[in-house]
């Protein structure tokens, strides 16, 4: 049986690295726990204080931000992490300074161009300005976060999530609930949170000590951009796999339908955000242990263990979400329950694809990973247009599942040409069948059955991870007794 306990104890000759991996994961999870709770807290706010149309428009702008951020900052954060983790002080200063000055230039140009475009599309008003500001902050936060991780300030990176969540929640309470600003209130709270997040990352990790004109290096710029440029296309086409559906729904079917889709997607986003934290440590571990003995076995084990964890988390979340939907009175949002399992499975497949895709970054094959994302994005676009025309919202969701599946399988088979790894297909199939079973039960909308499934799932997961739970409890006791 594969469990998280094996992550703690399964070092294979890399025990110290494994302990560091778990500690780093727990730090990220602890620091970002508030933002995940925040995700749960604001879901009822969407139902009460925003219309489906307003949520659809807000989600649409965030979707645009996701598309543009790798283009605006040239995805240079990927190179910062890849080369920064193993760099000594002088080289690290050069990496961060070079990336910072390149990004300042591209961000300034992008801000001016986008401001002109948005004023032309939406009119010269405060909403247009807030849209641009929200979009421009996304690559800033990402870059500062990667720089913080590259300088090994993991606690600062984690704590910045706590600050951001608190400010965001405070902003929603003031601008959305009290002032009833609606869409503008959501934008103001998001921007305020991003400003505080950026400041906490920059000041907390003391990035100002690394950045200097003297440390700018043309040679380093070529190295960073050579690595990151292929990843721009990879991230853009990754957007076509994960986010094109929302863009297409909003522009062809309507913002109300996109709001319904976005509401259903919020539940999957919680798993997506948590998995992104774990994936941060997975890529760092893969890079830092590259070339070590039994690296391939360790890589395989991380894929299996993490994938199992998130499938089992989904078995708990699904009935819990079904129970929550009994409190949703908004008819538009209420009917979105049927979309939740499909979107969640797509998220799980994308997470597994990310874990497998780490092999491309470790062996500097970033141009190859783009090909897998390109094919997946093409399938999603073609499917959304064709199936969306025939079946509407359902056709678009089916195309998203197809795109996620193509991404997973192409990365697996293409990745094996770089390093001969394996994954446990038996467990993958069993997890998928169990997910289907739990989903069908939850969709009966029977409250008592949903409670029973939640109890069974929770008890089963606690039993599977009992050794790890005991281990962590003992660790806490030992620290308290000191």
UniProtKB/TrEMBL annotation:
Organism: Enterococcus casseliflavus (Enterococcus flavescens)
UniProt entry tagged with the keyword Transmembrane helix: yes
Record's keyword annotation contains Cytoplasm: no
Name recorded for this polypeptide: Oligosaccharide flippase family protein
Keyword set, alphabetical order: Cell membrane, Membrane, Transmembrane, Transmembrane helix
A cellular component term, taken from the record's GO annotations: plasma membrane
Subcellular location: Cell membrane
Membrane topology field: Multi-pass membrane protein
InterPro entries per record: Poly_Biosynth_Transport, Polysacc_synth
Transmembrane segments: 26-47, 67-85, 97-119, 125-144, 156-178, 184-209, 221-240, 260-282, 303-325, 337-357, 369-387, 393-413, 425-442, 448-469
């Amino acid at each position: 049986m594969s469990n998280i306990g094996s992550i703690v104890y399964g070092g294979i000759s890399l025990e110290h690295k494994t302990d560091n991996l778990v500690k780093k994961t727990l730090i990220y999870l602890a620091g970002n726990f508030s933002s995940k709770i925040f995700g749960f807290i604001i879901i009822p706010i969407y139902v009460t204080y925003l219309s489906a149309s307003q949520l659809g428009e807000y989600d649409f702008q965030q979707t645009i931000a996701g598309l543009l951020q790798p283009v605006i900052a040239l995805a240079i954060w990927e190179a910062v992490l890849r080369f920064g983790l193993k760099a000594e002080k002088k080289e690290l200063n050069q990496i961060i300074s070079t990336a910072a000055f390149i990004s300042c230039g591209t961000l300034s140009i992008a801000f001016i161009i986008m401001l002109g475009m948005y004023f032309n599309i939406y009119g010269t008003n405060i909403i247009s300005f807030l849209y641009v500001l929200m979009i421009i902050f996304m690559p800033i936060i990402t870059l500062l976060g990667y720089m913080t991780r590259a300088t090994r300030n993991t606690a600062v990176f984690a704590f910045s999530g706590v600050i951001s969540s608190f400010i965001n929640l405070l902003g929603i309470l003031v601008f959305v609930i009290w002032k009833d600003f609606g869409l503008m209130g959501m934008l103001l709270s998001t921007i305020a949170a991003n400003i505080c997040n950026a400041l906490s990352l920059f000041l907390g990790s003391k990035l100002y000590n690394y950045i200097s004109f003297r440390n700018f290096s043309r040679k380093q710029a070529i190295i960073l951009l050579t690595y990151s440029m292929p990843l721009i296309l990879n991230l853009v086409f990754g957007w076509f796999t994960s986010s094109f559906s929302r863009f297409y729904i909003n522009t062809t079917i309507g913002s109300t339908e996109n709001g319904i889709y976005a509401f259903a997607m919020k539940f999957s986003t919680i798993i997506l955000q948590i998995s992104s934290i774990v994936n941060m440590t997975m890529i760092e571990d893969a890079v830092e242990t590259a070339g070590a003995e039994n690296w391939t076995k360790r890589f395989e084990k991380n894929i299996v263990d993490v994938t199992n964890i998130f499938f089992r988390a989904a078995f708990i979340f699904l009935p819990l979400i079904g129970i929550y939907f009994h409190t949703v009175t908004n008819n538009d949002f209420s009917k979105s329950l049927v979309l939740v399992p499909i979107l969640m499975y797509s998220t799980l497949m994308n997470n597994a694809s990310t874990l497998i895709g780490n092999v491309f970054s470790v062996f500097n094959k970033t141009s190859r990973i783009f090909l897998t994302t390109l094919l997946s994005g093409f399938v999603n676009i073609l499917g959304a247009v064709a199936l969306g025309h025939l079946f509407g919202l359902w056709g678009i969701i089916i195309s998203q599942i197809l795109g996620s599946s193509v991404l997973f399988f192409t990365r697996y088979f293409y990745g094996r040409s770089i390093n001969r790894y394996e994954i446990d297909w038996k467990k993958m199939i069993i997890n998928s069948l169990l997910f289907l079973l739990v989903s069908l039960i939850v969709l009966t909308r029977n409250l008592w059955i949903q409670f029973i499934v939640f109890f069974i799932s929770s008890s089963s997961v606690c039993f599977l991870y009992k050794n790890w739970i005991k281990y962590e409890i003992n660790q806490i006791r030992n620290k308290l007794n000191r």
